[in-house]
Write a structure and sequence with these properties.
mainly alpha; 1 helix; rod-shaped
Length: 47
């Protein structure tokens, strides 16, 4: 396996905050979708 070039590492470190923020946003969206689906299920069962 070839060693990773240093510039790739620095680029990855620079990108990681953006990646982390993106992933957190994705997780929040998924949680929001889950809670919405649960709300709809609850309404359907109540109706």
């Amino acid at each position: 396996m070839s060693p990773v070039p240093i510039r790739w590492l620095t680029k990855a470190v620079r990108l990681s905050p953006a990646i982390t923020q993106f992933l957190q946003q994705e997780v929040q969206d998924a949680a929001l979708i889950d809670s919405t689906i649960n709300d709809l299920r609850t309404l359907a069962q109540a109706g």
